Amino acid sequence: MKARPFVRHEKRRETAADRLIAFDFETTRIDKGTPRPLYLTAYSENPIFRLETRIDSMAHLLELLRDRFLRDDLAGCRFVAWNANNFDSYFIAAALINDSAYVIRPFMTKSHTLRGLCISLTDELALPEKKQRKWYFLDGIAMLGLSGFHVLIQEAHIGYRILHYVAISIC
Prior knowledge:
disordered C terminus, 27% strand, alpha/beta, Nucleotidyltransferase, domain 5
């Protein structure tokens, strides 16, 4: 059918919404050097997902990621953190980097800023792309196109956690 101007074409099939899970790290003070993750929280209604836990070490974080996040039933989920490029994605990558079972593919901007990660299994690299199980750890600010606005919103005295979950709901 030839496309004509001002004619609305219906979708051929409905697309399913991405499953989103909000997550956030609480860290030591950000002074000189890299902060250390202390706590991890994650929340979602669909799929139902709740996690609030202390992080003892990077080995403990790896164990949490394997057991709670990188599960078969959560393959394809988008784990979204508000401002994830400021350490959240780095913590995920640092925990998984020495585990040969996982492949880490970063999402980078043209200026080489980290915007998220795609995690897949090494054993499934020979499979076609669509058959591979993947987990995505993304930056909520980048998803919404709100770079630079988070400072203004936090100054308006909106609680960080409320802002975090509201931003995820908007997606």
